[in-house]
Amino acid sequence: MTLAAEDTERSDAGRGGRSRAGARRFDPGRLGAALLPWALPIVLVIVWELASRTGLMSARLLPAPSKVAVAFWKALVDGSLVTHTLVSTQRAFIGLAIGGGLGFALGLLNGLSRRAETLLDSTLQMVRNVPHLALIPLVILWFGIDEEAKIFLVAVGVFFPIYINTLHGVRTVDGQLVEMAEVYGLDRRALVTRIILPGALPSILVGLRYALGFMWLTLIVAETISASSGIGYMTMNAREFLQTDVVLLGIIIYALLGKLADSATRLVERRVLAWHPAYQAPKEAGR
Amino acid sequence: MSLAATARTPDAGTAAAPALPGGLPIQLVAATKSFGDREVLRELSLDVAPGSFLAVVGRSGGGKSTLMRLVAGLDQPTRGRVAIDGEAVTRRHPDVRLLFQEARLVPWQTVEGNVGIARGPDWRASAGRVLADVGLAGREGDWPSVLSGGQRQRVALARALVGAPRILLLDEPFGALDALTRLEMHKLLERIWLSRGFTTILITHDVAEAVALADRVVVLREGRIALDVDVPLARPRRELADPQAVALQAEILDAV
Ligand SMILES: Nc1ncnc2c1ncn2[C@@H]1O[C@H](COP(=O)(O)OP(=O)(O)O)[C@@H](O)[C@H]1O
Ligand SMILES: [Mg+2]
């Protein structure tokens, strides 16, 4: 996250971040490069399908991709897929908003104020050592199997990655910039909004991406253990009826939701970090 | 304010903006600065005339930046007095600007956003004006990361010029630039100083730079002034091997 390396002699027209956006032309070499990462998954799916059809692999252990596709279609048509996905997504994001909001606020507070940090940080670091999934029995005692239980677990799961990365980001903002801002008469509020928060943002976004991972993970576990709706419930229910295809479908939906959230964060990253040299050259941006 | 009457008046021809206020006098009276039991500045007394250009030369660790921080109000003297326009400096003075060795541009602000970092009234328009002054018209929307080292220092200079400062402090701002870019920056700084008339203190370890730019050169050694000479060379200066300049450089080098 150091920004010092790009120095002298990288100057002049045509290197401006903006002029580049229009430069995307059709290029068969580039299309090939874009498809390349998909080659292996496609081959694997084909092999899997063939293995199922020829009876090489038991359909009860692992149904063919086409069976999963049919299960997908059925669940889509009867509406259950949409309902369960919405319920899960809602739980996930309410938990993220609560836990992430708290993590951000406390990270910012402790990053800005030594006194707050002395008071809070060691306690928080201690709590951090408790794996949050270990709280499940306690949480069930507290909340039963209601919505609160799942939201609480997700909130605890996302709190720490956001808290720690916000704190770290605020702490590592370039002190020279802060001094400059003081010399140029920025007040405390302008200092936070114009220097400290944007400076901490790359780190905060890293925290957010970790948090999204924890968010889905926590939710899967929580829904699998106790729920009457959601993707986790859908898969557990299917397990009882030995519907392996639906179980697989649930796993795939989780993967897709996770991937979607991650891609959204990357998109946000690319937008708000447009100033960052790593997001300016198309070569680096491609990866 | 009585001293301001004697200040250099800005060149009428170059100043398109409303009349510039000119420079303020700076005064140090037996100023001592210690860190622990280490005296970095020792009973330093120095009068800087309003609108003049002073260069401070000295070895690294000689207390030059400390002197600068006292004048900028970033630090207080342990004993003695630092005054701007007759008033003791106790905090940041609104008419004083500081240029650091590094440009210290905010990477997530555009060139324009950096120049107008304090977001004063009409900041976009003022940013455009000072950017044109330092030869960077049309670069308002660029990110700092696409600029060269010299261009970054120009942006930093433009940022310092917003709001018509009356004192400009420069702490080795050209040290990291290549020789040609440095010469360009010298010309630019001299032109802007001539047209705006602020009081300037330039810290440098480059004796030739001091003689090329300043009216007066002070050598700081072990916290005291070891040499104080005027530089009576005509302006605008051209950095050729003027025999008078060479003699002055030799004298200063001896004192460093
Ligand atoms: N905040 C500080 N605390 C302790 N020592 C300092 C501090 N600032 C400067 N010094 C010391 O004061 C001396 C002069 O520093 P400085 O003014 O930066 O020198 P120069 O700019 O001439 O190289 C150095 O020895 C430095 O270590
Ligand atoms: Mg220094």
Describe this structure in words.
- The complex is a heterodimer of chains A (287) and B (256).
- With 287 residues, chain A is mostly helical.
- Chain A has helices at residues 28-53, 65-77, 80-112, 114-128, 136-143, 147-171, 175-183, 188-225, 231-240, 244-272, 282-285.
- Chain A is 73% helix and 0% strand.
- The model of chain A is unreliable at 1-23 and 282-287 (pLDDT under 50).
- Chain B has seven helices and ten strands.
- The radius of gyration of chain B is 18 Å and the shape is globular.
- The interface between A and B is medium-sized, with 34 and 31 residues.
- Residues 35, 40, 58, 60-66 of chain B line the site of adenosine-5'-diphosphate.
Largest sheet of chain A: none
Amount of helix of chain A: over 70%
Based on CA atoms alone, the radius of gyration of chain B comes out at 18 Å
Give the beta-strand count of chain A: 0
Question: In which range does the helix fraction of chain B lie?
Answer: 25-40%
Q: Give me the CATH superfamily of the largest domain in chain A.
A: MetI-like
Q: Classify the secondary structure makeup of chain B into a structural class.
A: alpha/beta
Q: How many structural domains does the protein architecture of chain A include?
A: 2
CATH second-level architecture of the largest domain in chain B: 3-Layer(aba) Sandwich
Walk across the major sheet of chain B and give the strand order. Answer: 6-7-8-3-9-10
Annotation keywords:
heterodimer, A: 287 residues, mainly alpha, MetI-like fold, B: alpha/beta, six-stranded mixed beta sheet, four-stranded antiparallel beta sheet, globular, binds adenosine-5'-diphosphate, binds magnesium ion
Short description:
The complex is a heterodimer of chains A (287) and B (256). With 287 residues, chain A is mostly helical.
Indicate the topology.
The complex is a heterodimer of chains A (287) and B (256).
Chain A: H1 28-53, H2 65-77, H3 80-112, H4 114-128, H5 136-143, H6 147-171, H7 175-183, H8 188-225, H9 231-240, H10 244-272, H11 282-285
Helix pairs in contact in A: 2-10, 3-4, 3-6, 3-8, 3-9, 5-6, 6-8, 8-9, 8-10, 9-10
Chain B: E1 26-35, E2 38-48, E3 53-58, H1 64-72, E4 79-84, E5 87-88, E6 96-99, H2 111-115, H3 123-133, H4 149-161, E7 167-171, H5 179-196, E8 199-204, H6 207-213, E9 216-221, E10 224-230, H7 243-255
Parallel strand pairs in B: 3-8, 3-9, 6-7, 7-8
Antiparallel strand pairs in B: 1-2, 1-4, 4-5, 9-10
Helix pairs in contact in B: 3-4, 6-7
Residues 35, 40, 58, 60-66 of chain B line the site of adenosine-5'-diphosphate.
